[in-house]
Write a structure and sequence with these properties.
With 295 residues, the chain is α/β, with parallel strands linked by helices. The protein has helices at 23-28, 50-61, 81-88, 104-120, 137-141, 143-148, 160-167, 179-192, 208-221, 234-240, 245-263, 278-294, and strands at 14-19, 36-40, 68-72, 95-98, 129-134, 157-158, 198-199, 225-228, 269-271, 274-276. α9 links the parallel β7 (198-199) and β8 (225-228). α11 (245-263) crosses α12. The longest helix has 19 residues, at 245-263.
Length: 295
């Protein structure tokens, strides 16, 4: 059976934000087990510190660390965005997070600028990842056109805080009001051949139950991972976005039984009373791949 139609996947479950102007927090941020860290020059960084913080995050990224290192630059409609890019792009950087993306022209402009800096600094073309955050009504409305020509964008992420403010939605603990846009994002990403998107942050640090439910919701909808704003969220996200032992065991059982049946000329069987054919086996292969990726 061919696995060519399995979705692309980068193996990033957790993106942990840290303010770019807090050296004490930056010094520890790579020790919490996040698959990727986002050093933030935008919302978490005071305006008065934005310029100085550029060098602060570079100094942190240059040190040996576990996990990938991203920088969230300021939005393209601010005076900081392109100067942020100029300052932080170098061999120490894995990717750029672009907030409040709304139209293809913005995506193209930032992608082009990154390419020029890669060329200027003798970095391999395309080595710097670009992950936009969709967090406005206009960005959500234009998502399909953004994904038709993604350039270096492999995946996008969701920012529910700004999105609910922009649209006028009350962001509740159960997040039921986000169901439509979550489903919309998964559909658009899949149709465009992109990786599954990264789900929104959860801002109520005291309500651990609703956070756990938010993780489960993201998994159910098909997101690849989740944005985190506190180190204590990382473990739950990492565990939530990978299969547990029972899922892995069942997936291997399905694959083994189906491969044996397929070799004998059958493409539909039963395993423990469940009907199994190619779509179900493809899901089992995806679970195997996740298990192999994260050990």
């Amino acid at each position: 059976m061919s696995q060519d139609n399995l979705r692309p996947f980068s193996g990033i479950r957790s993106f942990l934000f840290v303010p770019g102007n807090h050296p004490d927090k930056l010094a520890k941020v790579f020790t919490y087990g996040a698959d990727a860290v986002i050093l933030d020059l935008e919302d978490a960084c005071a305006d008065a510190d934005k310029v100085e913080a550029r060098q602060t995050v570079i100094d942190v990224l240059k040190k040996p660390h576990d996990g990938k290192g991203y920088v969230r630059v300021n939005a393209i409609d601010t005076p900081y965005c392109f100067r942020d890019l100029d300052a932080v792009i170098g061999p120490w950087l894995d990717g750029i997070v672009l907030p409040k993306l709304e139209c293809h022209e913005e995506l193209y402009a930032v992608d082009w600028a990154i390419s020029e800096y890669e060329k200027e600094r003798e970095l391999p073309f395309g080595s710097i990842d670009l992950m936009p955050i969709i967090e406005t009504a206009k960005g959500m409305k234009n998502l399909e056109s953004l994904c038709k020509k993604p350039g270096r964008m492999k995946r996008f992420s969701f920012g529910a805080g700004d999105f609910t403010r922009d649209v006028g939605i009350k962001w509740s603990a159960d997040e039921g009001e986000l169901s439509y846009v979550r489903g919309h994002m998964i559909l658009i990403a899949r149709d465009a051949g992109l990786e599954p998107p990264i789900d929104t942050v959860h801002i109520d640090l005291q309500d651990e139950d609703s956070f756990e439910e938010s993780v489960k919701t993201g998994v159910k909808y098909g997101f690849q991972g989740k944005l985190c704003i506190h180190p204590k969220q990382v473990l739950s996200v990492n565990q939530g976005f990978m299969p547990d032992a029972s899922e892995i065991e069942r997936a291997e059982k399905i694959i083994s039984a189906f491969e044996a049946a397929e070799a004998a000329g059958s493409a539909s069987i039963q395993v423990d009373g469940y009907f199994i054919d190619y779509p179900i086996v493809e899901k089992a292969y995806a679970i195997r791949r996740l298990a192999q990726t994260f050990g």
